[in-house]
Specification:
heterodimer; A: 140 residues; mainly alpha; 5 helices; 0% strand; B: 134 residues; Cytochrome Bc1 Complex, Chain D, domain 2; 2 domains; elongated
């Protein structure tokens, strides 16, 4: 088997959740701003599905990452930094997607505001993890 | 009103539970993968290196890595890798990826690049030898 297979798989899968989560945040943010207009409902529906897709995609990204590192969950240097941001981001992402699925359409404005704050935090953690992932590829 | 709050609390509790289960599952899978990887290694992990990506090592790989080391690295790092012009390579506390990148790209003004001289599998053998040094 190609020894770089899981590294390639990780590179291929890891960008989907990052992009989907950022798009979901943008869609829900736009829906929050456009509250009361007919388009807000569509924006939140799109935000929901991109978030759920992002959470689903993150499972593949984490699985390929673990296979690539042969089960390493911390490591050294940039890899350690990558993992320190990845694990809380992953847990938060799954939690947010679950919460969104459970709440469904019973989403009030204060709830959505709080949700967006937590999504922004998670997106920041994910971006930092992505930064250190890139550092491992480029800086060395 | 009360049922609405109760519903919201249940939603948050379920979300936290899902996040926890996801993290626990990932760490559980990692544990299994590490056990499998360590079974193929002759090295005993130290507390810090425990989390390190284990290089596939075996006495054969280490032996081949030593040959590569003597042919490519010994004139700078010493025949026993304790350092000469280059540094001592015993007890390296850096990742395998870091070692591979140093060998591949070198260090500007300090160490040449071996990208054209050593293939990936040769670097793996070399890393296996370096990991065998206490």
């Amino acid at each position: 088997m190609d020894s770089t297979l899981w590294a390639k798989a990780h590179g291929a899968t890891t960008h989907f959740p990052i992009a989907l989560v950022l798009v979901s945040f943008a869609l829900d943010g736009a829906g929050f701003v456009a509250a009361g207009r007919p388009v807000a409902r569509d924006l939140h529906a799109a935000g929901f599905w991109t978030m759920v897709s992002g959470a689903g995609g993150s499972v593949g990204a984490v699985a390929s990452g673990l296979l690539m590192t042969k089960g390493g969950v911390l490591g050294h240097d940039a890899l350690r930094m990558h993992h320190l941001f990845v694990w809380p981001a992953f847990a938060l992402l799954i939690a947010l997607a679950t919460w969104r699925a459970v709440v469904g359409r019973n989403l009030t404005r204060p709830m959505l505001g709080g949700y967006l704050v937590v999504v922004a935090t998670m997106a920041a953690l994910m971006t930092a993890a992505g930064y250190y992932g890139g550092e491992m590829m480029i800086a060395r | 009103m009360k049922s609405k709050i109760s519903f919201q609390l249940r939603a948050v509790a379920l979300a936290l539970l899902a996040g926890g289960v996801a993290l626990t599952s990932a760490f559980g899978a990692a544990r299994v993968l590490r056990r499998v990887a360590l079974r193929t290694s002759h090295q005993q992990p130290t507390p810090e290196v425990w989390f390190e990506t284990p290089t596939p090592t075996s006495p054969v790989l280490v032996k081949e890595g030593r040959t590569l080391f003597l042919n490519n690295c010994a004139h700078c790092h010493g025949i026993d890798a304790t350092g000469d012009e280059g540094p001592d390579l015993h007890g390296l506390e850096v990742s395998d990826r870091y070692i591979a990148n140093r060998i591949t790209h070198g260090i500007k003004g300090e160490m040449p690049s071996f990208a054209k001289k050593l293939h990936r599998d040769e670097i793996t053998r070399l890393t296996a030898y370096l990991r065998s040094l206490d």
